[in-house]
Amino acid sequence: MEGESLSHFLGRVRRRNHLSPSALGQLAGIGAKIARWERFHLNPFPSDADLKALGEVVGVEGGRLRLMLPPLGEGMIFEPIRLCGTCYDELPCHKIEWQFKSVWKCQKHGLKLLSKCPNCGKKFKTPALWEFGECDRCFLPFAQMRKYEKII
User: For the chain, first and last CA: distance in Å?
Assistant: First the structure.
């Protein structure tokens, strides 16, 4: 999906294929890196060789996987996980740009990014764990969170 974060993509692939992060890492020959990448721990930054190896296993070119990562030099926020409910309603995926240090509002809609469920206050889980697209405490769908967002 356009703009999807590597974390969200890896979670979708793993669930579809019933794999743990370590099993996917073993299949790709890159070890425990998958679990780190799912949490946005990108130090060291994924190499072209790592992305190529992963791409061969998941059927996606390494260059396409690179687009799911921040551009070189762009800082990342590990926590809190952020989202734009309006974007999620349009395309149900976590966008990598929402975790950039330089981004604090949705570039498309001009809305302040949410960092917790507006209904119950629970912080969002890592995007790799977003199986149902909803808060894991109160089950409010991410797409319905759009009505709580504020224009900045």
Answer: 26
Tokens (6 digits) for 7 = 């974390």
CB distance 81 to 125 below 8 Å: yes
Delineate the domains of the chain, giving CATH numbers in brackets: 6-66 (1.10.260.40)
Does pTM top 0.90 for this prediction?
A: yes
Of 12, 15, 14, 43, the closest CA to residue 28 belongs to: 14
Two structure tokens written together for 90: 């349009």
Three-state SS sequence of 104-143:
CECCCCCEECECECCCCCCECCCHHHCCCCECCCCCCEHH
- Contact by Cβ (8 Å): 130, 92: no
Q: Tens digits of per-residue pLDDT, 46-72?
A: 999 999 999 999 999 999 999 999 998
CA distance 132 to 53: 28
CB 2: neighbour CB atoms within 10 A?
7
Write down how long the chain is. 152
25, 51 Cβ separation under 8 angstroms: no
Helix (H/G/I), strand (E/B), else coil: 85? helix
